[in-house]
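A common beginner's mistake is to predict each chain separately and then try to dock the pieces by hand. The better habit, illustrated here, is to supply every component at once so that their relative placement is modeled jointly.
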Amino acid sequence: MEPSAPALPGPYLIFLGDTTEPGFAKTAFGLRDWARERCVGEYALAEATVTAGLPLLTPREAVGKGARALVIGVANPGGFIPDAWVPPLIEAMAAGLDLIGGMHSRLTDMPPIREAARRHGRELFDIRTPPPDIPVATGRKRTGRRLLTVGTDCALGKKYTALSIARGLAARGLDATFRASGQTGILIAGEGIAIDSVVSDFASGAAELLSPNAAPEHIDVIEGQGSLFHPSYASVSLALLHGSQPDLFVVCHKPGRERILGHPGYTLPSIEDVIDLSIRNGRLTNPAIRCAGVSLATNELAEAEAARLIAETEERLSLPVADPIRGGPAFERLLDACTS
Amino acid sequence: MEPSAPALPGPYLIFLGDTTEPGFAKTAFGLRDWARERCVGEYALAEATVTAGLPLLTPREAVGKGARALVIGVANPGGFIPDAWVPPLIEAMAAGLDLIGGMHSRLTDMPPIREAARRHGRELFDIRTPPPDIPVATGRKRTGRRLLTVGTDCALGKKYTALSIARGLAARGLDATFRASGQTGILIAGEGIAIDSVVSDFASGAAELLSPNAAPEHIDVIEGQGSLFHPSYASVSLALLHGSQPDLFVVCHKPGRERILGHPGYTLPSIEDVIDLSIRNGRLTNPAIRCAGVSLATNELAEAEAARLIAETEERLSLPVADPIRGGPAFERLLDACTS
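With all components supplied together, the output reads:
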């Protein structure tokens, strides 16, 4: 049998630790916005001021409401688990919850956590850790249809765009599945593989596992990573592009961003450049690859300004352009293109 | 201090195990051909029929001649270390040699080997295991000049071409260093990083470590991996291309090969395609990247046929073309292009 990412136990109780900085709770907010049905409530230490607005529950109460795992929904700079979190994490296991972590420091690398898990018969899931025995990519064409979100940079909506498209297609009664390639996406989907954590020899193979053979009309909507124009992560993006063998891709861009985040020496590529290089590289494993449209993250723009920019870009590229978060007719046209 | 690949202890005693199939001794032959000065002799079990033609020495005799490490110079299908090899490997450590292995199964994962190393105060080097704490790539331009070998496929001379060019430039009195990105290359150079074994998020960062800042006239000649047209390994090739920031690249090709090895569904790209896509992708981190020439592996062709093919390709591409192993005026012209 082929290896694959283990499905995570759910529903979740979301742990907010002692977090006072909303910016550190992106995972909790992502779960609330995109997997509300997988979240029975939230649990935090007295010092915490951040909330995802979910029912406040103790681990025991959460178990009573059907929760099967506690998810660490916050990260702190450095991505380690502070000592203050250990007692509540152990309390959660004692109450009957498995633990799911997506931080750099692994739950399984922490002796007190590992020991308590053994004692209470609980499982620890470090979702950044790829499944074992990932094979080298075969390059063989798979059945079913695939769409991949790509970007002009990191952090401009590749995950939200893929989630929006998968949800929009499902709302039209189509058989679509969101495929997660990063930690927050994995928590939302309940499964997936963190491609950036796979040894490079096997990264394309991991991307092949992520969207397996499917029914001819089924559409996998795959969360992209990085950018082919990112000096640090382009090889992760290429592994995902080759292994996903997408029939279609959607370019994600944030208007106004002019330089690669954290790399001031690198000018942001144009959307046209990203379309061109994605096709040039992507046609290796799928000669029929084409661009379905563009997703603009206009969250920092006023309604009218966003609408103007979307219309302008649509005209310039002769492709559907939308902000999936704003939705509307523009997004419906993008969905049309994703099904054609 | 930046992390870097540990320099390996040398000179070596090459271990041939009980090997009877020359095809399994490529590492031993590569060391004999390219790092003769690092090899004091060879050591094999009575059952072995394969030889690298080096002086036969026991570990104790080798230590007497200055050997500091025993290198496992053979691989067997599956890349594991058979039980029959364990006693001689322990004998080598008792005699005073460290152990260097490049097989998939790690020396450090074998309790009897690990225990003997502790007992004798010896070090174990698993060269497929990347150094710890490899940083994410910065994309910042480094000082010195860099040349990378790229390919139309795997296994058609990227390592031998880089070694030949580094040696040829050094013979001209130039300050050139071969940089190894794969296991055999690492043994030959005595240092390096196996890029394909690095977690994908850090693969370009590893390539940056591999060719650090250098004097303006210094040339790093970097061993390429895979091919941008390989359905399994293109992302490894891209990580190496972006992290190496090459000023020049040499395309390696094997005349007559029509399909990607092991992937009959994939037609080999043309040399022109490889030049184009290497520039398209490579200019991200070095806008001045260009092709210096082409290296043809003509070992299976007769002298005259090879010469004809080299001349034809040279005319078709208007670039220097040579088989570095054959050398001659064609190779001198390629070296000229590597210094221009």
